[in-house]
Recover the amino acids of this structure.
C-alpha cells in the first residue's frame, strides 16, 4: 500500500510540474483585472455553495491593502484561478482569518510571529476537481510568500472536512476547532503550518513548489522597488530544481 501511494504521489508530482510549464502568475493591480477576479470568485463560490451571506461584492477593501497580494493564475493564457495572500505582522494586522479567529491571530502576533494568510481561493469549476493540478498550483504562491517574507506560520482557515488534507499535505496543526461563522453561515476551523519545516518537506515531495529568488521578488516586491509595471510571471520551479540552485542547497 505504501508503494502504491509513493507511485501515485510521484506521478502527481510529475503532473504538477508538467502543468506548471503552461501556467503564468499575474499580480492583480488594474481595474480590469480586478473585475475579472471578481467574476471568477463568484463563479467558483456559487458552484461550491460558499457565497458569503452578507457579501455585496466579490471585491472588498482589504483586496487593496498594502500588504495584500492578489494573484491570477493563467493556464494557456486563460484566467483559471485566483488567490489573495496577506503578509501579517505585529505592526500590520490586516488578515482575512482575523475576521473569524481574532483571538488566535492576535496571540500569534503578540508573541512576535509573522504570518502568511491565504484567502479568497477560487478555481474555475472546470479546473477544480481533486485530480486537477490547478488547486495545488494556485496555492503555490503561499509557499513563495512564506520564503520571501521569512514568515513563521502559514495559516489555513477552512471548512472542517478539508482539515485532514491540510494536516497531511501542509503539515498543519489545528489552532482553533470548528467554529460557526456568521459571515458564511457554516463552520470554519483554523490551522497553521510551521513554514520553515514545511518548506523543506513539501518541496522535496513536490518540486513544483520550488522557486527562484527573482521569481519571488517579481511576485511580492513593490512596483516602486522593481521600477516595473505589473508583470505576468513565469514559474521557475524547474530552474530551482537544478543541482547548482541555491534552493537545492537549502534542501540538502
Amino acid at each position: 500500500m505504501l508503494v502504491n501511494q509513493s507511485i501515485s504521489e510521484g506521478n502527481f508530482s510529475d503532473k504538477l510540474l508538467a502543468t506548471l510549464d503552461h501556467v503564468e502568475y499575474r499580480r492583480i493591480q488594474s481595474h480590469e483585472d480586478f473585475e475579472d477576479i471578481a467574476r471568477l470568485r463568484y463563479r467558483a463560490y456559487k458552484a461550491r455553495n460558499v457565497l458569503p451571506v452578507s457579501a455585496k461584492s466579490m471585491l472588498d477593501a482589504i483586496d487593496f491593502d498594502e500588504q495584500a497580494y492578489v494573484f491570477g493564475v493563467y493556464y494557456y493564457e486563460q484566467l483559471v484561478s485566483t488567490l489573495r495572500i496577506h503578509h501579517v505582522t505585529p505592526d500590520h494586522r490586516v488578515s482575512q482569518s482575523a475576521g473569524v479567529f481574532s483571538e488566535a491571530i492576535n496571540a500569534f502576533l503578540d508573541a512576535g510571529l509573522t504570518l502568511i494568510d491565504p484567502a479568497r481561493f477560487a478555481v474555475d469549476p472546470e479546473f477544480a476537481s481533486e485530480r486537477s493540478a490547478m488547486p495545488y498550483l494556485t496555492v503555490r504562491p503561499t509557499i513563495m510568500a512564506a520564503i520571501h517574507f521569512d514568515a513563521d506560520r502559514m495559516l489555513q482557515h477552512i471548512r472542517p472536512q478539508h482539515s485532514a488534507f491540510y494536516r497531511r499535505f501542509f503539515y498543519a496543526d489545528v489552532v482553533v476547532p470548528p467554529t460557526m461563522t456568521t459571515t458564511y453561515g457554516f463552520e470554519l476551523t483554523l490551522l497553521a503550518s510551521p513554514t520553515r519545516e514545511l518548506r523543506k518537506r513539501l518541496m522535496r515531495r513536490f518540486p513544483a513548489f520550488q522557486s527562484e529568488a527573482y521569481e519571488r521578488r517579481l511576485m511580492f516586491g513593490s512596483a516602486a522597488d522593481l521600477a516595473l509595471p505589473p508583470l505576468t510571471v513565469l514559474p521557475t520551479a524547474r530552474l530551482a530544481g537544478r543541482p547548482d540552485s541555491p534552493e537545492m542547497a537549502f534542501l540538502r
